[in-house]
Design goal:
single chain, 12 strands, TIM Barrel, 394 residues
Amino acid sequence: MNFRDAQSIDDLRAIAHSRLPKIAWDFLDGGAEDNLTLDNNRAVFQRIRFRPHTLIDVSKRSAKTEIFGKTFNAPFGIAPTGAAGLYGFKADTAMARAARDAGLPFVLSTASFEPLEEVAQAAKGGALWFQLYMAKSRAPVEKLVTRALNAGFEALVLTSDVAQNGNREYNRRNGFSTPLKLNLRNLLDGALHPRWSLDVFLRTLLDSGVPRYQNVSRDGNERIIDKPVAEFQERREEVNWEDFRWLREFWPRKLFIKGVVRGDDALKAQQLGADGVFISNHGGRQLDGIISPLEAIPEIRAATGKNFMVMADGGFRRGADIIKAVALGADMAFIGRPMLYGISAGGEDGAKHALQILRAEIDRVLALTGICSIDELSPDLLWHPDFVPVHAHR
Ligand SMILES: Cc1cc2nc3c(=O)[nH]c(=O)nc-3n(C[C@H](O)[C@H](O)[C@H](O)COP(=O)(O)O)c2cc1C
């Protein structure tokens, strides 16, 4: 199937699956351990239903959403995904441009294969945020954060749920590790997926050699098949709220913590000067058995009040999912895998197609629920079997 014929994010997922070698597909689509978190992220949407208004003139509806004084075209953005370059040639640049052209925010991962400055330059004019993996030692973090500042990134998103790598057994079986192991089985699998091998792998090799984690390498030279740079890995388990306090002092622009799922932690983030949180379980890739972002939204909104930015990511595959999160109290939803499905299926145009699908779905849901503007969304629009009413947050 051509990506242009994809009617849904699920269609893009099927195309991506057919194009990618197993090692890359598993890394993209998998969760941790028994997929309890991953599956629940999706299952939750089935339990929440709409209570639409009827006989409303919706002809002038709009999905526009204001965040930090900027207007976006819809209440969602692109979550950070490391190693995105495995799924498309210069995938981060492609996603950042697709987001800019759709009028949506893009979060670049620390673990990008492209230097953050190049992505910022290529997607100039877009709302670019930078995701930070924090090391215990300050020097490399200062250096990286200063680069992000100088390159014009508007917000920093500190990922907080990575004290350890999640238990992803398939990665170990496949040899997906740092350093990456290129064994015979993986090379053969690559040969069986010629489109990926030529369009992504070979093109990247010819352009810039074996991919590197350009933002965390000491001198930009360590390849993904080399030993990792110790200074960014070491003492990850020690990172704590004191480090966040320091980061708040150091970074002058908007600051989020990603990986929060509890009201008390969100409140603490707020008290320490965060501008918002990303309610996230890392797309089910870290601890298995965490509540879904949707289950955490009401508690976090209630704990932090209405002037705090509450983002949510994990399992959003339909416009209706995004509208449910916003109605529950989130300011925006973020999507991870759907963009990589789009990139794998059709490069930058595939990523644009993924965004187009979601935007069209959002527009249709607004019409069918009798909602004309995002400000009208509240829990009143929703129903679920064990619904605890939370007062409208707006
Ligand atoms: C392939 C892949 C790589 C990811 N890399 C990062 C990363 O570098 N930093 C980060 O904070 N989150 C990372 N995430 C998590 C996403 O930011 C996001 O939380 C998650 O993908 C949302 O769930 P979804 O994929 O179901 O939309 C990654 C997710 C995937 C699928």
